[in-house]
Automatic annotation (TrEMBL):
Keyword annotations from UniProtKB, A to Z: Hydrolase, Metal-binding, Metalloprotease, Protease, Signal, Zinc
InterPro entries xref list: Aminopeptidase_N-like_N, Aminopeptidase_N-like_N_sf, Peptidase_M1, Peptidase_M1_aminopeptidases, Peptidase_M1_dom, Peptidase_M4/M1_CTD_sf
UniProt similarity note: Belongs to the peptidase M1 family.
Domain Aminopeptidase N-like N-terminal, chain residue ranges per copy: 52-217
GO biological process, one term: proteolysis
Annotated protein name in UniProt: Aminopeptidase N
Keyword Zinc: yes
Organism: Amycolatopsis thermoflava
Keyword Ubl conjugation (UniProt): no
Swiss-Prot/TrEMBL catalytic activity: Release of an N-terminal amino acid, Xaa-|-Yaa- from a peptide, amide or arylamide. Xaa is preferably Ala, but may be most amino acids including Pro (slow action). When a terminal hydrophobic residue is followed by a prolyl residue, the two may be released as an intact Xaa-Pro dipeptide
Length: 505
């Protein structure tokens, strides 16, 4: 009897001292911030998103849309709960791997907090399905904006048009469209399923995988082959004409231009200055779209790199995007009336967004402090393109930009360490382009090209930091370029331009 008792005790003690199995391991909540310096509420931890499947049902009579998103992710820890960035939506249901989950909405921090029925083990792939209603009329002010209480918030993230809408998700508004991990370094593949009335068309990132029509409704399915960041997603509904072309190496070029301008009328000054009229505006927009293959070929030759995605094209929308454009992946988005401008005015902007497909979409910033890698490259190559076409003198242009640099630093800080998030989109392009030009003037054309190619190839389909770029420049050049680049990227004062002592700030 005694032996049996001790044997039983030994079994109990052994069980108590044995390591806890993965199935029984306690979980901990995932972080509800990605640690962004400029936008501290943004992003989440504890998982890596690998895919999003987004559905919208569009009804032209209302601003609300029945919607859903399925996020596929991989747990980076034993996960008891996790967050998604989400705002402006009515969340109706949440499941994890098909099992209902507990959820709460935190509008102040723009979060959807999810607690699955069981802990998600580290390394496990799981699916989160969120059913919700999106409302395109809602324009909540981001929590980090110091916006006057009595001034309407006018940023058009849901960009409404006469015949539909488009998206403007940069820098951090993709989670207004669907719950997601809205940070540029957590890239994923996307599928979009959009149902519209038969007289409307849909354009989106990636390629058209299917189109079916039933009971007066058309259902479009688009999808990407490669991972893209959330801030460059695009879904547009409207009345479009599709322009299909072939680019270098058989690259499909599929553009979507308006088939009608709706209530838009050409301003008299555009007629006087550029010869644009209500009668010729649509043909001019189509003509601009048809210049895309030539621009892709030029940039491929300049970089020595093939286009990074499975297809490309331009999207022209009437109404929103007034004066701006966005590098939505595989399908850059423009104000349609702006596309009607002469090539010497508009082509550089088209190349700017095209360059972003490499620097911004294929190689994404690891944080918003690295945004100069996007905007600096885009502005640099748009000016190189303009010089190649005789639209401008590159040296004169860089000198003009140089004279403006200090005022931007005084207002917003240096390009790799802005003083506020308000400068992310508008105050990193000029200083970033000058940084690249300073590097070019220091190492010469051939070494500069080698640095650019090496940096792109090392980080394609991922993200990169400012430190990554400096490290590549040092290694490829065989020089210590850190002092030069650090001064340009982090200095409060505009540095002297290498090779141009006559330039004065």
């Amino acid at each position: 009897m005694r032996g049996r008792v001790w044997a039983a005790a030994a079994v109990l003690v052994g069980a108590a001292l044995s390591p806890v199995t993965a199935d029984a391991a306690p979980g901990t909540p995932g972080a509800t911030s990605a640690g962004e310096r400029l936008i501290p509420t943004l992003g989440n931890g504890g998982y890596d998103a690998t895919g999003y499947d987004v559905s919208f049902d569009y009804d032209p009579g209302v601003t609300t849309m029945r919607s859903s998103v399925v996020m596929t992710a991989r747990a980076a820890q034993n996960l008891s709960s996790f967050g998604l960035d989400s705002v402006g939506q009515r969340i109706e249901s949440v499941t994890v791997d098909g099992v209902p989950a507990t959820f709460t909405v935190d509008p102040a921090h723009e979060k959807l907090l999810v607690t699955p029925a069981k802990t998600l083990r580290e390394g496990r792939t799981f699916e989160v399905r969120v059913g919700y209603t999106a409302d395109r009329a809602r324009k909540p002010i981001p929590p980090y904006y110091d916006w006057p209480a009595n001034v309407p918030f006018t940023w058009e993230s849901w960009a409404e048009t006469d015949s539909g809408f488009a998206l403007m998700g940069q820098p951090d508004r993709a989670h207004l469209f669907f719950p997601c991990n809205d940070i540029p370094r957590d890239k994923a593949r996307f599928t979009f399923r959009v149902t519209v009335p038969r007289d409307r068309q849909v354009a989106a990132n990636g390629t058209l995988r299917s189109l079916s029509t039933r009971d007066g409704l058309s259902s479009y399915v688009y999808g990407t082959v490669t991972d893209i960041p959330t801030n460059v997603v695009q879904v547009a509904v409207g009345r479009f004409t599709t322009v299909e072309q072939t680019g270098p190496h058989g690259l499909p070029i599929v553009s979507h231009v308006p088939s009608t301008m709706g209530g838009f009328r050409v301003p008299p000054q555009a007629t006087e200055q550029y010869g644009i009229t209500d009668a010729n505006v649509l043909p001019r927009i189509t003509e601009a779209a048809r210049r895309t293959p030539e621009q892709v070929r030029w940039l491929e030759d300049t970089l020595g790199l093939p286009f990074p995605f499975e297809k490309y094209g331009v999207l022209g929308v009437v109404g929103p995007y007034d004066g701006v454009a966005l590098e939505t992946a595989t399908l850059s988005t423009f104000s349609a009336p702006a596309l009607a401008l002469p090539p010497e005015v508009q082509s550089e902007t088209m190349v700017h967004e095209l360059a972003h497909q490499y620097f911004g979409d294929a190689v994404s910033p690891a944080s918003w402090d690295d945004m100069w890698l996007n905007e600096g490259h885009a502005m640099y190559y748009q000016n190189v393109f303009g010089a190649s076409r005789g639209y401008r003198n590159l040296l004169d242009t860089m000198r003009e930009l140089y004279q403006q640099d200090q005022s931007i630093r005084d207002q917003s800080g240096p390009p790799a360490h802005l003083t506020s998030p308000g400068g992310i989109l508008l105050d990193t392009d000029l200083p970033g382009a000058l940084t690249l030009f300073a590097l070019h003037e220091t190492v010469g054309q051939q070494t500069f090209e080698r640095i650019e190619r090496a940096f792109y190839l090392e980080h394609r389909d991922g993200s990169a930091t400012t430190a990554d770029y400096i490290a590549t420049a040092n290694r490829v050049s065989g020089q210590d370029l850190a002092p030069l680049l650090t001064e340009w990227l982090y200095g409060a004062k505009t540095p002297a331009m290498p090779g141009h002592p006559d330039w004065r700030k």
